[in-house]
Amino acid sequence: MPTISNHLYLFTKMKIALIGYGKMGKAIEEIALERGHTIIAKINTQHPIESSEIFEADVAIEFSRPDKVVDHIQYCLDGSIPIVVGTTAWQAHFEAIKEQTLAANGSLLYASNFSIGVNIFFELNKKLAQLMHGKIDYTASMDEIHHLQKLDAPSGTAITLAHGIMENNEDYSSWVLGEEKNPYTTDGQLGITSYRQPDVPGTHSIHYKSDVDTISISHEAHSRKGFALGAVIAAEWLQKKKGVFTMNDVLNF
Question: What 3-state class would DSSP assign to 133?
Fold first, then answer.
């Protein structure tokens, strides 16, 4: 099992463009500077990508808005800039972007969540789903809690977890969302409940409940620092690579 320390020092210092300079962008900036990198562009509504110094960057890290991310990726592809993308809720365009990236011999690394702990949690979720296949006395459900500024529901992390369950447990073939309350589900549906509360970086829990007991696994982020560290590690890993990658490639899962 890889550890965070495996990725701490084996990298070249980079010039980074931050696409999106909200709370996540600022957390990434702090981590990047701690690790010796330079931030050469901070792109937001006041400083659009067209007016930035992005073409001097070794890599771009994108945490902006779902309606902007495709344009940002294409802009980086046109400029031959490797890009790490953490924005979610744009997956309907992913296959087209993947084809464009490969055709352009570009570099794209996308993850619904860059936290090292969450990516370990993804693997635990898959294993538990396998173990629970066919256990008809148990019903699976998920809940996720995020801060009030979170634009998408369910979160991209919750969707990744849902697909991990469905791909490893044939008892579930789709998911249904409830916002602030448990959704109504039928056979084969995984219920996801999304809550939005002040100052919650992100909590995801999977439950398998029967009449006699409940089996649960959970990941709770204490701050944005874990997400920021993972994004910077991903950017370091992406250096001199061509293709489309995920955090599974970075962590060698």
Answer: coil
